[in-house]
Amino acid sequence: MPRSIRALVAVRAGEPLDVLRLESRPVPTPSAGQALIRVRATPIHASDLHVLRGRYGFTPGFPTVGGHMECVGRIEALGSDTGGFEVGERVVAAAVPAVPGAPADGTWQEYLVADTHRLLPVPDRLSDSTACQLAVNPLTALLLVTRELDVRPGEWLLQTAAGSTVGRLVIQLCGHLGIRTINVVRRRAAVEEIEALGGDQVICTEDEDLPQRVAATAGPVGVRKAIDCVAGPVGAQVSQALAPGGEVVVYGALSTHRQTDPAALTIPLQARSVIYETKVVRGFWLNRWFGTASPEEALRALSEVRGLVADEVLTIPQGQPFPLERFAEAVPLAEAPAHGTKPLFVFEDGPGEVDK
Question: Can you give the pLDDT at residue 37?
Fold first, then answer.
């Protein structure tokens, strides 16, 4: 084991490329209930970058290692009270921090200390690219559909940003469960792609009225369940389109992606819908879910996701691997509108070998 490791460290809050530095750090030591993970691959999420900007739901102490979400690797060492795990075992670390606390360091480093109740064993047949993306987007899709809204077979589910990673996973999951989807996109060019993926109905806000299309599609019964990651006026239209008593769960705010003023992060709801039609708008944040779910509940959900991916019910697009030294090239791709693949930091092997 080396005496020091490479880590990508944010020295203060700010724009990622302005504050990130490649540093050497001592190898961390696992305490009771913890494991030392030799990281193989870890994604770069847009939310990771918002953490560094200080505009996410928590702010870590700086300096901090970036990447506060998920990774895959092998157990290098174990602390005490870690029964059930073995050195050399391949695991996913769900590093998503609980609220209100935040971890001191993240996953963008060669070795990581993680609590064993956040570790999920993964089979070798799942590539590093796939395994390192199990614990955020697929889990979010599963929880939104089956836990937060408990959408039943035959029901309609309305969702915005259907072309996003979570949106595509929702379509796959709903197809598997017999749930019908109404999918909102903002570009006409995306309609055919979402239909080919299995979306039952697609609404393009570029040239269509969202509430009118929903009403025409669902008929008198209407739609009572929706998920939204756009917020702003589109989120308000989703609420307006729901039947009385309907519920929309908001899990993102893409319409205010670069907005730094908290007062501008809004959903302009109609009071009539809330009062007389008793519609509900509430939020979902994976970090808070991890903070409130029991370790057993979290492990059950992660195991379910692992099974769905292993059985190819859910397909996670292959990521684009980068060594840590090329962070200035990799980090901007996490927010590039048309980059197409998730950037990943990979260790040990060259970029071409991450999915052996």
Answer: 97
Alpha-helix residue ranges (DSSP H) falling in the chain:
16-19, 46-53, 128-131, 137-142, 165-177, 191-197, 210-218, 232-241, 271-275, 286-292, 295-310, 327-330
Q: Are 79 and 34 in contact (CB under 8 A)?
A: yes
Structure confidence by residue, pLDDT tens digits, 144-182 = 999 999 999 999 999 999 999 999 999 999 999 999 999
| The CATH number of domain 4-134+316-353, selected from 3.90.180.10, 3.40.1650.10, 3.90.79.10, 1.20.210.10 | 3.90.180.10
Q: Which residues pair with 43 in a beta bridge?
A: 344
pTM of the model: 0.93
Q: How far is CA 241 from CA 10, 52, 120, 215, in A?
A: 42, 36, 39, 7
Q: What are the DSSP calls for 294-317, one per residue?
A: -HHHHHHHHHHHHHHHHTTSS-PP
**Omega into 28 within 30° of 0, i.e. cis?**
no
The stretches in the chain having pLDDT less than 70 are 98-104, 256-264, 337-340, 349-356
What distance in Å separates the CA atoms of residue 298 and residue 292, rounded to the nearest whole number? Answer: 9
Alpha-carbon distance of 101 to 57, in angstroms, equals: 11
* Cβ atoms of 39 and 139 closer than 8 Å: no
The distance of Cα 170 from the centroid of its chain, to the nearest Å, equals 12
Sort residue 129 into left (φ over 0), alpha (ψ -120 to 50) or beta. alpha
Does the domain made of 137-284 have the CATH classification 3.40.50.720? yes
Question: Under a CB-based contact definition with an 8 Å cutoff, are residues 320 and 343 in contact?
Answer: yes
Taking each helix axis from N to C terminus, what angle separates 210-218 and 232-241, rounded to the nearest 10 degrees? 30
* Residue 23, both tokens: 């540093």
- Show the tokens assigned to 171: 């379509």
Grouping H, G, I as helix, E, B as strand and the rest as coil, residue 177 is helix
Give the count of alpha carbons within 13 A of 345, CB side only: 29
Q: Determine the Cα–Cα distance for residues 42 and 237; give it in Å rounded to an integer.
A: 36
